[in-house]
Amino acid sequence: MPGDLLPFSSLCRDAVGRERTFRVLERLLTERERRTADDVAFLSMKTPILLTPMNDRMLVRFLVAALASAALTAPAATLTAVPMQGGMVMPMIAYQAGMGRLHVMLDPAIPQLTPLAVSHPGDGFAPEDPWFEALDPSRQGLAFSRRYGFVMNTETDPLPDGTKIWLRKVTGSPELGAFRYANTAPKAFEPIFGTAGSPSAMAWSGMMFHPTFTAPAGTNEYHATFDAYLADAVSGVEIPNTSTGPFEMTWTTVSDGRPTLGIATKLAISWAVVPGNYVLESADSLPAANWTPVATPPLTIDGKPTVLLEPAAAARVYRLRQIP
Q1: 111 CB contacts (<8 Å, ≥6 apart)?
Q2: Which residues pair with 268 in a beta bridge?
Q3: Is the per-residue pLDDT at 312 higher than 70?
């Protein structure tokens, strides 16, 4: 007797339940090949259903089809918060009074930037939320993670009077974005750490702080180098020799399945359609004694013959020569 005495209705309520039910049904199909008529399995809504040699395959296949249909037609959820996308990865910062500087302890885990279309298939964000444009699959659909978070080490010494900790991004992958995220009113998704022209450094209260990091979905790896330092609490001026020194944070990304677009700048040479046959020729300069046929065949763009060349070809001169 199998041990899967599971209420069918409860199994179908979410993706995890549907996946588990699929596994049970698939195993039943396999095990039936070696079971006797007296060996039964139960999948019940309120009462057990006996799977006999005559009806088991028909019933199981019907349930599999019903589950697949339910998965495709299940209503999408509108998320009102940005998921963490995994467990927390916390750089822990402490002030060491004996050395007069900050110290950081890094977690070796590497977060994965994941688009919502992968982590929450079919779901979306509320259009009125400030992160909708950047993260919703119907807009930019950026991959994101909130796993990295700055936190004070519990073994820190008290900060010197009149000082405050600042966090600074020193360098980073150009496509890596960072945003201050707040899910309570007023909600916020503000560029920080140099994103969209924002300052590269920001004052930090010492409370746990999880920025949202973003990048285009794909299979790339992104890096950013940070440091933390003490600054005057009033002026924000950095206090020399108090920095942690540089520490690196790393992310991987996952593709959302969309093909990568190829974008290139080209020189386009086109001409009107007229009777006769013409060949496009080029020379280094004018006057020219030698003209060379352009090897690239023309395409039809906007109804005109058009030859697409590399930008460097703009330094040459061109003409059309009629041929028999």
Answers
A1: 85, 86, 89, 145, 147, 148, 213, 251, 252
A2: 308
A3: yes
Q: Which residues does 61 contact at the CB level (< 8 Å), separation at least 6?
A: none
Domain ranges of the chain: 6-73, 92-253, 267-323
User: In this predicted model, what pLDDT tens digit does every residue of 283-296 receive, in sequence order?
Assistant: 999 999 999 999 99
DSSP string of 195-256, one letter each residue: GGG--SEEEE-SS-B-PEEEE-SSS-EEEEEEEEEEEETTT-PBPTT-----EEEEEEE---
Return the half-sphere exposure (C-beta side, CA atoms, 13 A cut-off) of residue 99. 12
Residues 32-51: tens digit of each pLDDT: 444 443 333 333 333 444 44
